[in-house]
Amino acid sequence: MSNKPESTPQGNFFDCTIKAGYYDFIGPGIAQHTFAIAEKNGNTYAMPCFGSFALREEERGHRGVAYRAELWSPWIIGSQRQGQDLPANLSVALGMAQFNLLPGYDWKVADWDTYWAGLSAPLRGLSPQSWAGLIYGVHGVCHQACNRILWASRLGAFNYTPVNWPPSFSASYWAYGFYGGATEYAATILATALVIKALLGESNEAMDRLKRSEQLARDVMNHQTRIGLADHSEGAIRQHHVQVILDRLPQDLQIASPSAVTEIIRFDRAFSKEKLTLDNDIILTNHTNYHDTYAAELNGKFSELLQKFRQVMPTETFNTLFPDVPVGRSFTLIERKLMHEDYRRLLD
Predict the structure, then answer these.
(1) What is the pLDDT of residues 234-284, one digit of tens each?
(2) For 214-277, what is the HEC assignment?
């Protein structure tokens, strides 16, 4: 796919409508794959977030399709409906999806079908170039990528952007947040540069300065990833994040037992340390066969974490935080086939 941009009318930031959707990825009610769709001047652009997309049931063989999906305010408790469509800027949406200041515009629905038709069967329906600056599994999954792309609906304050909320997102949020961990700072830099470009145009002087912002975003992404892999806070940042979630629970869902809160934090910290080891292994290894181990172990350890939470949290509290986690079944946090082919190359 090319990187030749179309011209964007100056002074008219909101030039498209952006929507989101999801479909069952593994089986009914187990996990959902998310995607974003932008419409402008009769054209439909798809941002498939590592995978594929479907605008109706059975399209490209996908089932359980929800499009247009309801968007929600980014609050883990008490989230409010925000409608199904947002006015947005197409160049910002494509730029966030591709993590590129000069994105390609050949991401129309027909372009994707033509692209996939030329690939071998195992690669069809995959879109690793639609990554939104996330290292898959390490910083987030398709849920967080889609929500970053929705930043195209704002001129700033991106962490207030409405989010796509498939059933499995509540659990995904616990691991990665609304917009992806660590590299969210880098994504904010690039999103800001994309907004400025959309507002001011592409003069030589403006683009020279904005290109520096793109490089800064990539440098920050690499730096924050490496800092995260070392975890110099020794888990303190993660502990604070969990404590904030628990403190913000409504009064009737508060966990009264101090020992239970201590256990939740301890369980989460143990999982975070295990994930950190897996993240280091996947990024530092040259062996693609480690991908199977990473996916299986991360999914297994996250499922174990949720089961431990179920044992110590009041039932209503657990069901509010994780409303779609099946009882007695494993939870699929990441999907093996959506993983990057070469993780080391992402930090070059």
Answers:
(1) 788 889 989 999 999 999 999 999 999 999 999 999 999 999 999 999 998
(2) HHHHHHHHHHHHHHHHHCCCCCHHHHHHHHHHHHCCCHHHCCCCHHHHHHHHHHHHHHHHHHHH
CA distance 23 to 35: 9
* pLDDT confidence band for 1 (50 / 70 / 90): low
R_g of the chain computed on alpha carbons: 20
Instruction: Please tell me the distance from the alpha carbon of residue 322 to that of residue 324, in angstroms, as a whole number.
Output: 6
Any bridge partners for residue 344, and if so which? none
Give the span between the Cα atoms of 59 and 57, in whole angstroms: 6
How many Å apart are CA 31 and CA 335, to the nearest integer? 9
**Residue 135's closest CA among 273, 229, 235, 267?**
229
Peptide bond before residue 68 is cis, with ω within 30 degrees of 0: yes
Give the pTM.
Answer: 0.93
Distance CA 106, CA 109 (A): 9
Vertex 281: Cα angle to 276 and 283 (nearest 5): 95
Please state whether 221 falls in left (phi above 0), alpha (psi between -120 and 50) or beta. Answer: alpha
Q: What band does 203 get if pLDDT is binned at 50, 70 and 90? A: confident
- Spatial neighbors of 237 by CB under 8 A, at least 6 apart, are none
In 3D space, the residue among 22, 10, 19 whose CA is nearest the CA of residue 40 turns out to be 19
If one counts every other C-beta atom within 10 angstroms of the C-beta of residue 6, the result is 12
* DSSP H stretches of helix in the chain: 90-98, 109-117, 142-149, 169-176, 184-200, 204-230, 236-247, 258-284, 290-312, 315-321
Q: Which residues pair with 45 in a beta bridge?
A: 38, 108
